[in-house]
Amino acid sequence: MAERVYGFDGVSPSKGKPGRKRYAMVVDLRRCTGCNACTSSCKTAFDVPLGDWRIWVAEAEFGEFPNTRRSVLPRLCNQCDEPSCVRSCPTQATFKHPDGFVLQRYNRCIGCRTCMVACPYNARHLLPEYRRNRNNPRNVADKCDFCVVRVTRGLAPICVASCTGGAMVFGDINDPQSEVARLLRESKTFNLRVELGTAPQVYYIGLTESIGDPEFAFHNRSAQLHERYNSFKRNSELGGEMAGDIIDTDMGFWGLMRHIVRNFSSFFAQVPHKFFRGLY
Amino acid sequence: MEGQMIANAFHHSYWGFPIALYFWLVGVSAGSFVVSSLGWVFGIKKYKPTAFFASNTAIVMLMIVPVLLIIDLGKPYRFFHLLLLGSFSHWSAPMVWGSCFILTYPVAMLFYSYFVYQKNERWARILGILAVVLALCTHWYTGVVMQLNPSRVPNHTSVAPILFLTGAYVSGIGFLICCLWLRNKFLAAEKQVPIELIADMARLMLYGIVFDLFLLGNEFLQMTYGVAEEHTMLYDVLLGVFRWPYLYLEIIWGLLLPLGILAIPKINRRMGWVLAAAFMCATGVYGMRIWWVMGTFYYQGHY
Fold first, then answer.
1. In this predicted complex, what is the ipTM?
2. Which of A117, A192, A225, A227 to mutate to test the interface with B (most CBs of B within 10 A)?
3. Residue A271, Cβ neighbours under 10 Å: how many?
4. φ and ψ at A259, to 5 degrees?
5. Which residue among A75, A132, B115, B219 has the highest number of C-beta atoms inside a 10 angstrom radius?
6. Is the residue at A190 inside a domain?
7. Distance (Å) from the alpha carbon of B39 to chain A's nearest alpha carbon
8. Alpha-carbon dihedral of residues B201, B207, B208, B212, nearest 10 degrees?
9. CB neighbourhood size of A243 (10 A)
């Protein structure tokens, strides 16, 4: 079996329990074409709002012409065995299911966003006030749940089902006959940010440090990245005016003042919507 | 190999300026209360005249906190989920500890204020000890809630609560000096807090400033020798988006200038200069709250 790294005590909830499922995913990056079929099918299936993702594909380009290369990395909640979001949630709204899912209970969540602060994978988001379907949950934290509703009905998660290259493999690794167990046994697999001890359950084959390393983003902060990010912020109503709006073009004193004023004004503008929803 | 990220997700709406303001308010409250307790708890008699006013200032500042926090929740009506201690609450979450502190701290302060008003030495001392411990805990928690996230590498340091407490001490005394100066404007001469006492409080603030600079120096040193995200933080607090809150607002405006004022013997007992230093300290610490709270959220989006 390929060597894997676990958290501090390294015990998975269903590890070694006969008859229990232990779901995990293997993403074979050699097969991933970066087509974003997983992203779009997930967005469609769960009505994931604009600006938020349950799964997304990080892309990076390297080198100078003619020696260029592009790396892709489908990113989703890692369904950690030692989830730091569960540890930080003050109301037990998020919890680790014994079968491996990290799930979110919308009716308990108070929207304090501590789980988003705790998550090292940036995998959580806050559902906005305005949803296309008004029956959908609002103003609570949300995340990828490994499509628990599909999996418990015998279907693969929708990203796996829609993967055009067959790069994503999902299954029960307690079952040695499953394809995911075979891949873990026979291939060298990697996790994201294993040093944090979260014991992630999404495994990658062919992960290179250039796309998997967070330091990469710093050394390669480009004008293009900031331009895209800024334009997203400018054009998105859902982007909000929270912490992330500090951008490189606003480094001066008046930039700081502008952000403080904008942040507080949007903060107070949300108050009537939060307290008197449905009345107008 | 040179490269650039061309697509990634930015889940950015975490905690913003209101939460930084909450940290600042709790700090000011705790710092004011420490001054209030000097006379009745620690037996430094010359601070007794300020105790009642300082304690009430602390209470007023803390009253704003629950409003900010509850409004900031996505589901404000569900704030009581934090208080269902037997069922919903998750004791490994620092936020639950903080909820307990924020609930009990103002109550202890109210009783303390009452006994100070009644000049009941014994009970003022008992409640004062309790409230000082709760004041320290309440602000300790604001550091801890950031510290206990290993994923936020620059915040994940045990210096964090001490840095927060020192900032609270400095900003609380600074804010209290400003309030006392304002109060003196409306009082008859015999009821005013003497300038000597305010200058002594500024001297206490000076010790806090020196200790704060020492801690920040340590933190800075760790950033220069740090791992990936700490390097990112270093870049952004010196050259990038957090240069204003960190370098100008906190270090220069909030610490170095007051240090310069309060270290010069000829001017450190004059009301105008002391007041300027106090105002700089009180406002400058908000810069620390900004870069400490929001700094790491910014990089996390890149990952």
1. 0.87
2. A117
3. 13
4. -70, -40
5. A75
6. yes
7. 37
8. 160
9. 26
In this structure, the answer to whether residues A157 and A246 fall within a common structural domain is no
Within a domain: residue A152?
A: yes
User: A110–B293: do the CB atoms touch at under 8 Å?
Assistant: no
What is the pTM (predicted TM-score) of this model? 0.89
Tell which of A217, A239, A255 closes a domain.
Answer: A217
Mutate which: B2, B17, B19, B102, vs A, most A CBs within 10 A: B17
Residue A71's beta-bridge partner residues?
Answer: A60
Regarding whether A191 and A56 lie in a shared domain, the answer is: yes
Q: Do A214 and B148 touch (CB under 8 A)?
A: no
| Cβ partners under 8 Å of residue B230, min gap 6 | B153, B154, B222, B223
CB contact under 8 A, A118 and B96: no
**What residue in A sits closest to B94 (Cα-Cα)?**
A88
Nearest to A84 among B7, B79, B149 (CB): B149
Q: Look at residues B116, B273, B281 and name the one whose alpha carbon lies nearest to residue B198.
A: B273
Q: Cβ–Cβ of A251/B9 closer than 8 Å?
A: no
Residue A1: pLDDT over 60? no
Q: Which domain holds residue A231?
A: 221-275
Boundary residue ending a domain (A217, A243, A262): A217
Residue of B nearest to A192 (CA): B303
How many other C-beta atoms lie within 10 A of the C-beta of residue B218?
Answer: 14
pLDDT at A191 over 80: yes
CB contact at 8 A, B6 and A59: yes
CATH of residue A164: 3.30.70.20
CA distance A132 to chain B (A): 18
Are A59 and B151 within 8 A, CB to CB? no
Q: How many CA atoms lie within 13 A of B182 on its CB side?
A: 11
- Is pLDDT at A223 greater than 80 in this prediction? no
Lookup result for tokens 């015998």: A154
Among B295, B294, B237, B289, residue whose Cα is nearest residue B15:
B294
Q: In degrees, to the nearest 5, what angle opens at C-alpha B53 toward C-alphas B59 and B119?
A: 105
Q: Show residues of chain A in contact with B4, CB under 8 Å.
A: 60-61, 220, 222, 224-225
Same domain, A200 and A270: no
Do A186 and A233 reside in the same domain of the chain? Answer: no
Q: Using an 8 Å Cβ cutoff, are B274 and B9 in contact?
A: no
Closest A-chain CA to B83: A91
A96 and A166 inside one domain: yes
Q: Out of A64, A118, A225, name the one closest to residue B5 (CB).
A: A225
Specify the number of domains making up chain A: 2
| Average pLDDT of the residues of chain A | 80
Could B74 and A141 be called an inter-chain contact, meaning their C-beta atoms sit closer than 8 Å? yes
Task: Mark whether A177 and A230 lie in a shared domain.
Answer: no
Q: Does the structure show a pLDDT above 80 at A225? A: no
Q: Which CATH superfamily is domain B17-300 in?
A: Formate dehydrogenase/DMSO reductase domain (1.20.1630.10)
Domain shared by A155 and A175, yes or no: yes
Q: Which residues of chain B have pLDDT under 50?
A: none
Binary contact (A91, B90; C-beta < 8 A):
yes
The C-alpha atoms of residue A81 and residue B232 are separated, in whole angstroms, by 28
Residues A39 and A143 in one domain: yes
